[in-house]
Amino acid sequence: LWLPTSYSYATWHWGCANNRYSCNHPHAVGFNNPPPFPFPVMDIHGVLDDVIPSNISNGHGRGADGSVLSEDGFYYTVTADILQVWADANGCTGKTGHEHYKTPFDGTDDFYCWHPHGTNCKAAVVRCTHSLGHTWPFDDNRGRANEKYAQLCWDFFVQNENSLRKHNA
User: What pLDDT, on a 0 to 100 scale, did the predictor assign at position 151?
Assistant: First the structure.
């Protein structure tokens, strides 16, 4: 699982718990450097996030190589480009689009998830948005993760456990 809030730790921890390869053969896992085996990824971005914007339309301009400029002057890779790298690594084939990925929180703060590269993947690639900015989804003005976010992550782990276990043989 890759999450924008703590992707490296979550990826290593989940992979380590479920796949001896990722524990015994450390590798850098990041936005454009997925693991050497299919690994589920979920990206969550607020559509008003201009701190780490997910696309040009909510950034402050375009940078080199199609990157997006943030409000503090940093350049970031566009989310669609990041997820394309992961889709390729996860063997996604078939149609691309907005096939809905259902969660118990659909509609909360306009929360919505989809499979941007279809569902024919060795491990899921999911993209989610909400109507907030650079904050946790379902933020209750406490500025920290909450129970709904924890449940969302747990559900994603559980639903995608088999794609990791296949590589533990």
Answer: 92
